[in-house]
## 1
Amino acid sequence: MPDQKTFIDENRGHFVELLKELLRIPSVSTDSRHKEDVKTAADWVADRFRNLNLETKIIPTEGHPIVYAESPPVPGKPVALVYGHYDVQPPEPLDLWVTPPFEPTERDGNLVARGATDDKGQMLTHVFGATAWMKSMGELPIQVKFLIEGEEEIGSANLGPFIEQNKELLANDVVVISDSSQFAPGQPAITYGLKGIAYFELKLIGPNRDLHSGSFGGSVRNPANALCGMLSTLIDEHGWIHIPGFYDDVKPITGDERENFAELPFNEEKFKEQLGVDAVHGEEGYTTLERRWARPTLDINGLTSGYQGEGAKTVLPSEASAKFSCRLVPDQCPHKIGKALREHLEKVCPSGIKMEFKEHHGSPGFVVATDSPYVKAASAAIEQGFGNAPVLIREGGSIPIVANFAQQLDSDVLLLGWGLDDDNTHSPNEKFNLADFQRGIAASAQLWAELAKIEK
């Protein structure tokens, strides 16, 4: 029977073909037209666990199903819970994809498809890391539980209650999540902090129909003009957010963290070149990494109003809307900020306009201890899998359920990203480097061995 490394080397191509199978399933959780596709993806993931003879369940929710699987307990050893998601973001705009979003294509050493890195490819590295153990040794050296959901991209509304109601089933010592990035190509990382999120939608309603802007302009309030004015009160040119009380609970970046960030090999010129911009921008007084990782932000995510077809149409629109989000740092409360934001918008909403405000999903930020035995185990596993020791970083993205794991299950959390920051997550031409996919599998297989060295 081959060892794990030999098994992984012999099955490199097979692992890629399995990933392609999952990527072909358009499991877009936010679009009701893809409800059956999401279920198909859940069934596919469950079948992988059944093929390993793991105890497997597909658990229905009010939304999309949760897939749960576990290997047998190993007395005296830690229990790891792998969390991931099989749902993906919508692929639009479709015309910007070089190849179809749900037809995975190998290009320049990458696999290009929606969900390639977020999170199907990264999630499967842990499935295949466990596969290597089960197929080469017949068992895992620790108990590994898998919790794979289908609603991460829409806020994990049903997973939180599931965790609360199934604490015994999900009990573990450490949660392992790969849904983030390395620091740079060839430089793996362990992410010890995530930002939280608060997502909002604002709709302004004016006249009861679109109007001729010549005949009616200057006589009624234009909702699009009003929307621009209201949004301009939220953040200024210096990057300072003007929601009342927004910074009340923001902890300053520590001196040690600022030193650690400054020592990382970050090249701002290459960063600008990669993004196609001639300048960076954000809250004054902070570096680019500090703003991305450890300071709160506000960004408009979408604007809709009036005529948007080809050519000109002189219309005074009857409605205007915006979707925008705040990325939060630890101790900021999404609901507290939402309440303050609503009150602020109500005060600045002009006469002649009706305002509708909606809070979508939200979650707090999170920071984990960097001196735990689990972080040390992960560092050793990553160094073996990638051939390079990881650095410790924070991340500007959000994984809403992380705080639930820490608070409700009293778990340590390992955030191990195999992706790269130019993987186009949530954008056209999402990709996953195939060499990093294979390194992630090797690191995952080694992680189970390193965790087994920790005595409970």
## 2
Amino acid sequence: MNILQSKLEEKLAGLPVSMAIEMPQGGWIGPPDQAQLRIHCRNAAALAALAAGDVGVVGAAIVEGHVEIDGSMRDVMAAAAALVPSDPVAARSTWWSRMLARSRSAALHTLTKDSEQIQFHYDVSDAFYGLWLDPRRVYSCAYYAQPDYNLAQAQEAKLDLICRKLRLQPGERFLDVGAGWGGLLLWAAEHYGVQGTGITLSRNQHAHVNRLIEEKGLQGRVRMLLSDYRHLQVDEPFDKLASVGMFEHVGRAHMQEYFGTLKRLIKPGGLLMNHGITAGGTDNEQLGAGMGDFIEKYIFPGGELIHVSAVLEEMAHAGWEMVDTDNLRPHYAKTLWAWSDALEAQLDEALAILAQKGNPAQAAKTLRAYRLYLAGCATGFEHGWVALHQMLAVMPDGSMTTGSMPGAQSQYPFTRDYMYR
């Protein structure tokens, strides 16, 4: 324990925030009355993980109640980022690890497992998400077109940016793959006059959006289906597609099937907006320092991040032509901090909502997991460990006369000024 204590004392000296650690057997490392952040360790394993910089393991210990924290989540994450011993995206894969990862990806993304995994995350509680999301419950990266935008304004700016990039027109058939609580689907219908279809695997989201469709009088113009994208059958392909915050759940082994399915659903010459989280490293299977394992266990079972270069390659293999790619990474950091701050301001109410399912101990675990997840992801985006890309692609129709320029073969004008007018 003396060696471990010496190592921890050395770690504490280099942190950007003052921290004190309560030892399992009693006593403190660092003065607790002067610390911005106090860590109460209940077992030696958590203490060893803290010394090693295995922040994902420490996070799991917090969720399970073996470690308690006193301090703001911003201070927690400043300390966690400093404790990570090396670049968490620097790991290099081998042919063997890639083969294992692909086999695991294939096994994790069957139709049944995908449905279970989506419901594990999104059906926690609509009221819980409603506490810290914007009023439209847009659960994806906002767009801070103006630095002083609040979260609601930034989310509306993101919805409108996607609609503009897709050049949505009245009467067009529009599909939102993984439509969440309907923010984009309803915005596109109300502001751009599309005939909208959304799909989700979450029963809570499906019921919520159908209530909104009825309340807004959009029956006949908008529909929300409880369907896997692979099962969706349509009489006529769509003019435009959007997939926002969804393809992270597809899995590397199913990327070809995913983009191939979207190809089946689009008209020749149509546009696709693929908006989602991408890996910060080109070769790592997941985030290091235990962070990937934490997210897999407590937040997004089956989630997989792929570098944008690999996503674009998979897209090209399916016949899509990338026409615009936009990295919004810092926007997602700001979005996540807004979510985190909103949750931190309502912890008692959040716990009461989660406890309505009748298991107070599980409710407390879920809340601890989400507190770490939101603030931890904000930190990851700030540091560039993960990124967020909007990838606009077209499905060329093969005609040299389609579009505003010879050879466009699509509705895309091959200029970008229209996106920001």
## 3
Amino acid sequence: MNPGDRVRVDRADRTYEGVLLPSSTDDHLVVKLEGGYNVGVDRAEANVEVLAEDVYEIDGTDATGADEDDAGDEGASEIEFDDDLPTISLISTGGTIASTVDYRTGAVTAQFDAEDVLRAVPDLAGRANYRGRVVANILSENMEPPIWQDLARAVREEIDAGADGVVVMHGTDTMQYSASALAFMLETPVPIVFTGSQRSADRPSSDNVMNAVSAVEAAKSDCAEVLVCMHASESDDVCALHRGTRVRKNHTSRRDAFETVGAEPLGTVDYETEAVEFQGDYQQRGKADLELRDDLESDVELLKFTPGMDPAFLDVVEGSEGLIIEGTGLGHVHTDLIPRIEDLIDDGTTVVMTSQCLEGRVCDRVYDTGRDLLEAGVIEAGDTLPGTAKVKLMWALEHSEDVEEAMGTSLAGEIQERSVPWE
């Protein structure tokens, strides 16, 4: 028996039927049940019947996930190439979509590399040729600017080597920051699609298969931009394609947690028909030359103003190269903070104002507080999302001769021409 076979497993008084998956140990069988759950069974105590061979094609692996021809090369896999299919690079950084269950402990751990993801999502087979690469194996809350740089360089190398599209497997908590970072650091002639999973693969409600499949279809499309591909609703029907600089995770656990702020998503992927459609202007495949500009100024902070905030918070950022402020409404803070902000600017800190409102743009010319902030030297960021603004300022401080002009100009779709309700 091999991964991909449909099997019936009898153990004691229980019977399990499903698709055999690669296992993390030689002592356990892993079966994906019809309802979506994975179950681990002790080999020594199991009676296994193969009901159908090669229900899913998972080449070159035995039931432990090791290559049959080279059992000593643990975790190796062979992927056959078809000249008629596009080549998609799968780059793993960790996160729930790249996690597996250790059936000895019951814990979900982020330990799959990109080729393991391919083996664990058999539905990807036949859609493209794949190359697997691991840049990091971390929980996304541990993401840092140096890893963004490593990721951008890896994506550049994959495209330069002939990849027709790139799918980045990433934890959802900081995906919007990483997508923004790559959008500023890379000019790309092919799609770069971030995807992840809100729920792990062993849960019936897992979104990992649909998101991964839809991301691959998006990576084969004509939109050569940095996108985020996640569920468009709680149903398993459509994934939304969000521009990497306009997306925000707006729910902690729903499968449709990601939303394009202030506009409709750039596109959609119909899971059943595999149709990829776009409803906005985008950069077409092949129009841009591949270019990497990955220098970042990491000494940039993001500070949210709240009523009654201790002015000492501004002391913490003293000496920083850059500061993004999430102001109230049109971009305001308490008037007593303005002199301290002006001191920061005079000392060389670039201060940029965004709004903590989910929609709309900064306009500090309406009220006296805003005018005083502008006079102090604060830069407006339009309707750039605060997280995106932080990443953009990190990039602009290294690459722009006029940072104020750069922060007020849409470089990667982060600023919209108008801020209007779209629903």
## 4
Amino acid sequence: MQNPSDPAGQLDLSLDLNLGIELQDDLEGDTLREECGVFGIFGHPEAAAITALGLHALQHRGQEAAGIVSFDGSRFHSERRLGLVGDTFSRREVIERLPGIVAVGHVRYSTTGATILRNVQPLFAELNAGGFAVGHNGNLTNGLTLRRELVKNGAMMQSTTDTEVILHLVAQSKRSRFIDRFIEALRAIEGAYSLVSLTNKKLVGARDPLGIRPLVLGDLDGCPILTSETCALDMIGAKYVRDVEPGEIVVFDEEGAHSHKPFPPKPPRPCIFEYIYFSRPDSIVGGRSVYEVRKAFGAQLARESHVEVDVVVPVPDSGVPAAVGYSQYSGVPFELGIIRNHYVGRTFIQPTQSVRELGVRMKHSANRAAIEGKRIILIDDSLVRGTTSKKIVRMMRDAGAREVHFRLASPPILYPDYYGIDLPDRGGLLAATHTLEEMRDIIGADSLAFLSIDGLYRAMGEPGRDPANPKFSDHCFTGAYPTHLTDQTQVEPQPRQLSLLAEAS
């Protein structure tokens, strides 16, 4: 057995991990990766326990790591771990190490920075005015540029996540009041963010000026809550108060609630993928039921591209609401033709060729009784690389389906994302590199169709997409990015220090 400190041993380990990640990417080729989820509560005697429950409800937004920071009136306490929320925060002894009446929490899926413990949020730093913890959902499009400037000016970075940039900007501000330092930091960043942060006196939430990332305000027995989705409020029995407005900063302290709006108002551009994929179906986002919106996507898909079939089959679990809507509109029976195994994860998948061939079947299995001898229409929410879709179509044919038609409840993904969604560059996006007929042939379906961009907007209650004033951040379909992409325009390559830090951790 090699010594873990031996460079050769580290190399073998990294190769094994890379193989595992490569296989996972292959199995999840048509799946968008979650962003992150944030939660904060002020004034509750069981703040950490409530935060842990809230993070459980947000687990779908990130399964790689979770963390909670609390403040007991004199000291900050932090627990950050890789893995699921329940792996750590279901244990009483862990919650007991997080005393205090105020806490913030975060579930992470890494879009910037490797999945290593030093990147797990909330991040914490001691400032001259006291402790400061911050959790971030989103991605800064000038984070790397700001990082270079901060390091050049003497900052010592301890992580590879863009969230640390916010810590340093607040720390370096010369303003006397914390809120002014916080605002000054936000003025320097661009991109998408919803933040929950904690000082020794305040719980602070902030949302980017376009409202790309969601943030809602709730109330539990008079205690204010900030969180990414309303489903976290439902989990703990809290009531929904309102959405934090785009560009708004909300502050809670012993004197009450305060709202600051330091940015010029802009037409909101919330992320359309919150409705397509990210949010839980039982959440309310921007005043809309996610479940009802996804059903409307399916109904619109049936209007646009229906063919004669015997059953409608969702690709679980992401395609279920759209398939319900498709079935209800078209009158074609809904059947669970694919059964998902929820207990298969990366741990059980070994990177061997024989298991690669069985990969999808470990996660999805055909319900032969529902599909044999029938013409079926498969409904999924989106298509990225096409690898899983190809295997599912083949699985349906192997189970006896007479015809297999594939429908996607969103438009073709043509452009990468820079706001917190883990999508490949254009070369890795099937729709960006192939025609519709080529994609149909690759997947092996009898027909293939996507929801149109105007149909997407109509399902959202709009007359269609107005190119001059789009109501949502839909850049993955249209290339119309709502903010500057400073890091993407820089000719300077990514500094080697970032990757070295990840490898050494």
